[in-house]
Amino acid sequence: MTLPPLLVVTDRHGADRPLTETVRAAVAGWARFVWLRDRDLDRDTRRDLAHDLIALLAPVGGRLIVGGDAELAAETGAQGVHLPGSAGIDGIRAARKILGAGALIGFSAHSVAEIAEAEAMGADYATLSPIFPTASKPGYGPALGLASLRAVAAHRLPVFALGGIDGDNAPACREAGAAGVAVMGGVMRGADPRAATARFVAALT
Predict the structure, then answer these.
(1) How far is residue 8's CA from residue 122's CA, in Å, rounded to a whole number?
(2) Deepest of 27, 69, 126, 164, by most Cβ within 10 A of its Cβ?
(3) What is the pLDDT of residue 139?
(4) What distances in angstroms separate CA 180 from CA 42, 95, 161, 175, one per listed residue?
């Protein structure tokens, strides 16, 4: 399975513009893979937001992944779900049953061992974090560094580096074996999400 090398993670906090406008700009900058996070929203609002984002991505062949809610992903027609590490094999099995064989099931890993587990459990891709120091992931311990990406490169599971990713270190993540990078603040909170996304895409391709 070939996935775009940039996974844009939504975060409506920290930006003055509506989230849909940020994602619209990111799509204009060649974002084709978006993870709807924003877990603090109520389900109805999140459902409407998912529909809006799918409408932005569908015309360009992009994919929307819904964080943590396979039923919402199925209801909205999203291309998959991204599960927390706590979901385990039961969560992956349940998501697969709800979404079917063609859906993408992502998994949040925080160690090299968890990448191997995610692959064995049937995930389609995983994020590994935090690769670099980041204020948004303070509870996951020290940064794992590029060595962790080299260690997981032996696995077939596509792994996206997450945490502290910027335009300078994104290429190094790819060189270390990552399938791509997952970026939140670098796109969501910037003054020009389109330009920021385009810079990431250029650095990764």
Answers:
(1) 23
(2) 126
(3) 56
(4) 30, 23, 6, 10
Answer yes or no: are the C-beta atoms of 101 and 117 closer than 8 Å.
Answer: no
d(CA 125, CA 56): 23
Closest C-alpha among 106, 108, 164 to residue 131: 164
- Are 36 and 65 contacting, i.e. CB atoms less than 8 angstroms apart? yes
Domain 6-204, classified CATH 3.50.50.60, yes or no: no
Residue 115: partners with Cβ closer than 8 Å, 6 or more residues away: 109, 126, 128, 152, 155, 157, 159
Is beta strand 80-83 parallel, antiparallel or unpaired with respect to 63-67? parallel
DSSP class of residue 60? G
Contact call for residues 72 and 50 (beta carbons, < 8 A) = yes
Taking only the tens place, the pLDDT of each residue in 81-103 is 999 999 988 999 999 999 999 99
Give the domain ranges of the chain: 6-204
* Residue 68: closest CA among 102, 40, 27: 40
The closest alpha carbon to 53, from 43, 66, 41, 44, belongs to 66
User: Is residue 115's pLDDT more than 90?
Assistant: yes
